[in-house]
């Protein structure tokens, strides 16, 4: 049976998700701000040195990634996108936007017939830079996702020298995001205003 200590952080996360989602929905000029966010990201030395980059395919009010993915290809990067399979994320080497089709809720995902091709399957340890979505963040790089834990489970397997970089609008930042032992902090949160760096361990409260 769950205790009050168990329920309180979950309730706090629920309220933060709702507030962050509402803020993001009301964010004006998202395309321009997304461009500014990725200008900051590509200025990092870890971007220049990364050969394989994971990036989510944006949906609705998320920080828009399509322009950035095109930039990755132009810069000669190997582009990897995640997709949901059962209760975890699989990783797919994306050759062009034509490799994608609408999946659950209309989110663009790799076409089913391409997923089984061996040269398209990627392991998280191959990735040098991971560009990660989320709903709420704090300036200590705590991250609150969509509640399924998909990215937390994926990120625990990331190589120690990979950069975990979340992209978010400044309006998605809060004074503190509740962290449980299985939650993973990112190494940097990149917004249109600044780059916030992690100073605490990746995992844990």
Structure description:
There is one protein chain. This protein is of the alpha/beta class. It has a single domain, classed as NagB/RpiA/CoA transferase-like (Rossmann fold), CATH 3.40.50. The protein contains 6 helices and 11 strands. It has helices at 4-25, 30-42, 45-49, 66-74, 112-115, 150-155, and strands spanning 52-55, 78-85, 88-93, 100-102, 108-110, 129-132, 136-137, 143-144, 163-167, 188-190, 195-197. The strands form 3 sheets. The protein has a 7-stranded mixed β-sheet with strand order 3-2-1-6-9-10-11. Strands 4-5 form a two-stranded antiparallel sheet. It has a two-stranded antiparallel sheet with strand order 7-8. A hairpin with a 5-residue loop joins strand 7 and strand 8 (143-144). The protein is globular, with a radius of gyration of 16 Å. The two termini are 22 Å apart. Residues 1-7 have low confidence and may be disordered.
Query: In the CATH hierarchy, what is the class?
Result: Alpha Beta
**What is the fold-level CATH name, i.e. the topology?**
Rossmann fold
What's the name of the CATH homologous superfamily?
NagB/RpiA/CoA transferase-like
> What is the arithmetic mean of pLDDT?
93
Residues in β-strands, percent: 15-25%
Q: Which geometry do the CA atoms define?
A: globular
- Biggest sheet architecture: 7 strands, mixed
Helix content: 25-40%
Named CATH architecture: 3-Layer(aba) Sandwich
The count of strands amounts to 11
Sequence stretches where pLDDT stays below 50 over 5 or more residues? 1-7
């Amino acid at each position: 049976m769950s205790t009050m200590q168990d329920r309180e952080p979950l309730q706090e996360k629920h309220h933060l998700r709702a507030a962050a989602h509402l803020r993001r929905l009301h964010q004006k000029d998202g395309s321009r701000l997304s461009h500014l966010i990725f200008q900051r990201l590509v200025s990092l030395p870890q971007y220049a040195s990364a050969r394989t980059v994971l990036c989510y395919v944006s949906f609705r009010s998320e920080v828009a990634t399509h322009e950035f993915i095109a930039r990755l290809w132009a810069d000669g990067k190997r582009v990897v996108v995640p997709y949901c399979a059962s209760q975890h994320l699989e990783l797919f080497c994306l050759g062009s936007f034509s490799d994608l089709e609408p999946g659950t809720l209309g989110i663009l995902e790799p076409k089913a017939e391409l997923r089984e091709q061996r040269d398209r399957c990627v392991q998280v340890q191959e990735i040098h830079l991971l560009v990660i979505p989320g709903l709420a963040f704090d300036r200590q790089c705590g991250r609150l996702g969509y509640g399924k834990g998909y990215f937390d489970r994926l990120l625990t397997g990331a190589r120690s020298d990979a950069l975990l970089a979340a992209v978010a609008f400044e309006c998605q930042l809060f004074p503190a995001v509740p962290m449980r032992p299985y939650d993973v902090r990112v190494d940097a949160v990149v917004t249109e205003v600044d780059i916030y760096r992690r100073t605490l361990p990746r995992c844990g409260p």
